[in-house]
């Protein structure tokens, strides 16, 4: 059985930059499948009898990046399940990954032969706006990391570990940058320009 190699867009940006919000809109208009690495980890964490539950929970609360073996296993499983349902569903938004060198190396080692990364969609947003949005959401999100203490750690991890990955992709000409500080609809106007010219 010959399967089309899946096409992947990585979606990156600071905590609260709007990755998830915009991915929902991209799915509606362009029919991609949205896989949020953070959502996959949170759902794995809440499963009964998983060996990784505690580890994932503590990493997320501390704003630290979970070892790539765990994350890739979840991403790959979700991709395989989707394509098994419908082989034509082979375009994916991978949201919130890769976040550090460990993530990038793990992807290159395990996934380079199995998926094509088309580009990196980067939501550029100041730390202040990011923190404010997550604190606001924290009033009812139930997320263990939407509090000031965790947010400062998430921002630090983003600056130290994730930004350099975006910079590296930028040098390869793979980054499509969007100003993430504008309103949701304004941001999506810019996002559509990118997807319309890529497709
Ligand atoms: N909002 C969105 N867009 C707005 C706009 N333009 N104007 C005004 N408000 C806007 O948005 C956040 C909030 O802002 C919402 O209330 C929204 O309504 C509003 P959202 O779209 O959810 O932003 P997003 O960028 O998705 O923020 P999120 O908090 O999900 O980003 P993170 O990257 O911090 O979280 P993620 O879930 O990806 O990861 C969480 C943790 O999981 C990480 O810290 C890490 O510990 C772990 N993780 C890994 O270890 N490995 C991975 O590969 C992935 C995650
Ligand atoms: Mg998100």
TrEMBL record:
It is an enzyme of class 2 (transferase). Binds 1 Mg(2+) ion per monomer. GO terms for molecular function: AMP kinase activity; ATP binding; CMP kinase activity; dAMP kinase activity; dCMP kinase activity; nucleoside diphosphate kinase activity; UMP kinase activity. It catalyses: CDP + GTP = CTP + GDP; GDP + ATP = GTP + ADP; dCMP + ATP = dCDP + ADP; AMP + ATP = 2 ADP. It is found in: Cytoplasm; Nucleus. CMP binds at residue 103. Its cofactor is Mg(2+). Keywords: ATP-binding, Cytoplasm, Kinase, Nucleotide-binding, Nucleus, Pyrimidine biosynthesis, Transferase. Residues 136-146 are annotated as: LID. GO terms for biological process: 'de novo' pyrimidine nucleobase biosynthetic process; pyrimidine nucleotide biosynthetic process. Its main location: cytoplasm. PROSITE patterns: ADENYLATE_KINASE (PS00113). ATP binds at residues 16-21, 137, 182. One of its GO terms (cellular component) is cytoplasm. It holds the Pfam family ADK. A ribonucleoside 5'-phosphate binds at residues 42, 64-66, 96-99, 143, 154. Its EC number is 2.7.4.14, 2.7.4.6. Residues 36-66 are annotated as: NMPbind. NCBIfam families: UMP_CMP_kin_fam. Monomer. Consists of three domains, a large central CORE domain and two small peripheral domains, NMPbind and LID, which undergo movements during catalysis. The LID domain closes over the site of phosphoryl transfer upon ATP binding. Assembling and dissambling the active center during each catalytic cycle provides an effective means to prevent ATP hydrolysis. PANTHER family: NUCLEOTIDE KINASE. Belongs to the adenylate kinase family. UMP-CMP kinase subfamily. Catalyzes the phosphorylation of pyrimidine nucleoside monophosphates at the expense of ATP. Plays an important role in de novo pyrimidine nucleotide biosynthesis. Has preference for UMP and CMP as phosphate acceptors. Also displays broad nucleoside diphosphate kinase activity. This is UMP-CMP kinase. The gene is CMPK1.
């Amino acid at each position: 059985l010959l399967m089309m190699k899946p096409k992947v867009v990585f979606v990156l940006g600071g905590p609260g930059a709007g990755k998830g919000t915009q991915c929902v809109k991209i799915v509606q208009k362009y029919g991609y499948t949205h896989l949020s690495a953070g959502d996959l980890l949170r759902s794995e964490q809440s499963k009964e009898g998983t060996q990784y539950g505690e580890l994932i929970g503590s990493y997320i609360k501390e704003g630290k990046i979970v070892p790539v073996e765990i994350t890739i296993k979840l991403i790959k499983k979700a991709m395989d399940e989707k394509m098994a349902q419908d082989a034509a569903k082979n375009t994916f938004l991978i949201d919130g990954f890769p976040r550090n060198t460990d993530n990038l190396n793990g992807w290159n080692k395990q996934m380079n032969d199995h998926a094509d990364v088309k580009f990196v969609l980067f939501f550029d947003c100041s730390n202040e706006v990011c923190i404010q949005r997550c604190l606001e959401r924290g009033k009812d999100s139930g997320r263990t990391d939407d509090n000031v203490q965790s947010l400062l750690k998430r921002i630090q991890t983003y600056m130290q570990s994730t930004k350099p990955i975006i910079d590296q992709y930028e040098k390869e000409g793979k980054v499509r940058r969007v100003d993430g500080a504008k309103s949701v609809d304004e941001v999506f106007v810019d996002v559509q320009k990118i997807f319309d010219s890529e497709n």
